[in-house]
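User: As part of a screening pipeline, I want to sanity-check one entry by hand. Below is the sequence and the SMILES for magnesium ion. Please return the complex as structure tokens so I can compare it with the automated output.
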Amino acid sequence: MIKFENVTKKYGDLTVVDNLTLEVDKGNLVALIGASGCGKTTTLKMVNRIIEPTSGNIFVNEENILRQDPVQLRRGIGYVIQQIGLFPNMTIAENITVVGKLLSWNKAHSRERAEELLHMVEMDPALYMNRYPNELSGGQQQRIGVLRALATDPEIILMDEPFGALDPITREQLQNEFINLQTRLHKTILFVTHDMDEAIKMADSIVLMRDGKIVQAAAAEEMLRNPADDYVASFIGMDRRLRSPDEVLVEEIMIPDPVTIESSRGLAEAQERMRKRRVDSLMVVDQNGVLVGIITIKDIQRNMAKGSRISDIVNSAPTFVLEGASVREAVYAMSQEGIGYLPVVDDKQRLKGLITRSSLVSVLSDVLWNSPDNGVENPEKEAVEGESR
Amino acid sequence: MTVSLPFGLAVLTGKSIFIQVYDVIANNPQGFLTALGEHVFFLVFIPVMLAILIAVPLGVLATRKPFLERIFLGFVNILQTIPSLALFVLLIVIGFGIGTRPAIIALFLYSLLPILRNTVVGIKGVDPFLKEAALGMGMTGWQRLRMVELPLAFRVIMGGIRTSAVICIGTGTIAAYIGAGGLGQYIVRGLAFYSNGLLLAGAIPATLLALLTDFLLGRFERTVTPRGLRVEAAKNRSKS
Ligand SMILES: Nc1ncnc2c1ncn2[C@@H]1O[C@H](COP(=O)(O)OP(=O)(O)O)[C@@H](O)[C@H]1O
Ligand SMILES: [Mg+2]
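Assistant: Here is the complex for your manual check:
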């Protein structure tokens, strides 16, 4: 649908887009992503000839756009910019159908189309048709910006960081709305963003650019699984990469500094510490920080009468896992032993952290199901949070 | 731009001066109305209209070609520095004769600068992203001008027109020296006869006319400005 063939753009000696070849298939949303100044906007604007390439060819619908009348070309391509760019002297209805006006639509048709489009984003036409852009919030304005691009039902839409200037909540809303629209409309969309989360969320495939060149072009999942090189990996960010439980290390997901107690202490003190820290188990360590065992509230209650020291009752062969082990090993150990807690130690068996079932669940679902925004939220974090904090 | 009414020449001698002015006008109301009509039509309306017809297109052209901007603005700036009486005389000397014609031409030339400058400033002041949006929507240069740039520059251009009108009202009084009629006739005669009553019968109405014109043009500007731009102006005002 859109095809770049060896497209280069130079400003004097500065090469901004460097021999770029890229194809956007019909009905796909392709996100151009990369650091600021890498040539995303320039690439986008060459499609509607706001910028002319220095060399190479661009095809839209198999036709070389450089041989087309730019004005006609642009009327057939939707265009949404970050700065929104609604015309302040025109009403919302006039703004939405401005391209229709250029194409000499009659008034009745324009009104109908504006109403229809406003309904699509659940804005009441009766309320908004005759308002002016500055009477709308930023989010509403960009909804209109998107509707303006859709008004003549073009096959292709160019969007340059369309949601970049909105606050995070509004951005999220508009992204979701737009995804809904796109599943209905199947437009062919070239979408510039510098936000990887947005790209992952919106795009059928992601094109990562650097210094005017494509570093990797792939579906989100493929890029997350197999970043082409270190630059891609670092751009994606470690926490967002899709990795199997074999690749994720225990130390990455453990709760550091769990609540501990020295084995020479008394049971009453252990009980008091549990109460104060609101946990129901303690990691027992010796004076060198070496893991001795685990003691639970039940152990204490059962043995309160018998002995007075932790060392008397603690089980001396605790299950643990090394900090360099994989999450798969940790899961295996926990299910084998039927335990909910797994201490993490270094090679000298010094206590480093703690893995709990719920920390595993939330971390693994992030890693496996790719919801990086959720972060490592652990409901039990409170209960076992470190002594040092 | 200051309004050059020969105010300071009038020696105000108390209340009686207003009675003298009243007498002058009441004595020949028909003559006064004719002078006022001439002033408004020949010395303000015609020159300003001509200036709009010429300066707005030239201003638009100047925003399209930067080298033209320098040439046009340089030219009208020089015009503005020529003292008015000198310009009148110059026009007579180069063959425009005396009377209304050279006056209209001189006032037209003075009106060019404010309108041309404000047209350039107004259009250049349009948000570049709006120009880009207009381009991206597939507007031709002409459509962009008509649908976006001129509407958005309208208030600034109107500001230039108001300034020009006020300049014409003031400078127009001097045109009476070359026989162009208007309210300046009272001033010329008043100076010749040392009559404050006569002098002020020209100066006071000219001043009031200037104030009234500026006010009415301001009202006009506000009524024809689309609501979207008015609200913006209101918001900007409350912000600053
Ligand atoms: N008109 C221009 N003249 C010179 N350099 C430009 C021009 N437009 C853009 N550039 C440069 O081209 C590079 C890419 O710009 P752009 O495509 O806007 O980047 P992005 O959208 O990826 O942030 C930048 O380094 C920018 O400074
Ligand atoms: Mg950009």
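Points to compare against the pipeline: The first helix of chain B runs from residue 16 to 27. Residues 90 and 96 of chain B are 9 Å apart (CA to CA).
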